[in-house]
Amino acid sequence: MHPIAAKEKNYIFFTQLLYYICAPMHIIKKITLLLLTIFFLNSIVIAQQNFNTAVSKAGVGKIKIEWINPYGDSVVQLNVQRSWDSVKNFRTIFVPLSPGLPQNGYIDETNGYDMQYYRVFYVLSNGKYFFTKSKKITSGSDFTDAFSEDQTKDTNFIITVHDDDTVIATFNYSAYQHFKDSIVNFTRDTLYSLSGADILLRYYSNNITWIPSTKVYTNADGYVQVSLPDAVQKNYSIRFLDDRRKSLFTIKHVDQPLLILDKTDFLHSGWFYFELYENNHIKERNKFYIPKDF
Q1: What is the per-residue pLDDT for 227?
Q2: What digits encode the pLDDT tens for the residues 246-288?
Q3: Rounded to whole angstroms, how far apart are CA atoms 30 and 15?
Q4: What number of H helices and E strands is found in the chain?
Q5: What is the Cα–Cα distance from 207 to 228, expressed in whole angstroms?
Q6: What residues contact residue 135 under an 8 Å CB cut-off, 6+ apart?
Q7: Could you give the domains of the chain?
Q8: Of 69, 66, 99, 70, which is closest to residue 220 (Cα–Cα)?
């Protein structure tokens, strides 16, 4: 039985049981409403603590929405949504073809207006769906998990922040909040949760964060898809490389607008690179991810 159907069946049984023991109807309604509210709010809180997003500038008139997906291929649908306020009127602006990628992003061209809020709506393979916390643009990025209420109230709870080499500082929760706000709002650095109260600070570099290609990518079934609408009119070739940038194979001439490559061409799952050429001139260098179920 589907998990959602099972939960609905249990819910119906519980309400019927209350009815048979002659509880007043208004009490039954209050109890069932409370149970449903707790169930959905609990699901959403859990999702927001684990599915992390960040919103930052990506140049003039462009906003970058990034996310880290801890659920892998269990994410079967994902929508990036935008609104003029932080609570309602969200509309979907982007739907990736491969929602199960461990890390992904989208560039929103805003024509110079950068006061919008963004969030991610996603659906898991068990039918549950969630919304991440809505966020506005910041200069830095925050991919940290939320701490529990008990941890935030515990004056002895210590948070350690370090970079790749050394411990930078230790904070109680209140001091850490001030530190995090300063990083997110006044630098271009990024914060990540590692485990427990361990926070990693990654300093900004000029390397552009990966944004999936619209020409060579993995589709919803995990196959590598090449989409070149003008392939018949132009002379395209593609070179594929492994995660160590060793050459795998080359398609010397792409002569059709849509091409699906078999997973076995890539021998294993993981990251792969490609170089797209037009008339022997480089047009794009990028990478794609083949899911682990391969």
Answers
A1: 93
A2: 888 999 999 999 999 988 888 888 889 998 998 888 888 889 9
A3: 11
A4: 4, 19
A5: 27
A6: 53, 54, 55, 117, 118, 119
A7: 3-48 (no CATH), 52-137 (2.60.40.10), 139-208 (no CATH), 216-290 (2.60.40)
A8: 99
Beta carbons within 10 angstroms of residue 35's beta carbon: 13
In the structure, what pLDDT confidence band is assigned to residue 6 with cuts at 50, 70 and 90? very low
pLDDT in tens, 181-209: 888 888 888 888 887 789 998 887 765 56
Per mean pLDDT, which of 12-16, 116-120, 278-282 is the most reliable? 116-120
User: Distance from CA of residue 172 to its chain's centroid?
Assistant: 29
Report the alpha-carbon distance of residue 239 to residue 249 in Å, rounded. 6
Among 135, 107, 173, residue whose Cα is nearest residue 51: 135
Q: b/e string for 95-110 if b means 16 or more Cβ within 10 A?
A: ebebbbbbebbbebeb
Torsion of CA 229, 230, 232, 236, to 10 degrees: -100
Tokens of 287: 């990478």
| 261 close to 249: Cβ distance less than 8 angstroms | no
Q: Is the dihedral of CA 259, 260, 263, 265 positive or negative?
A: negative
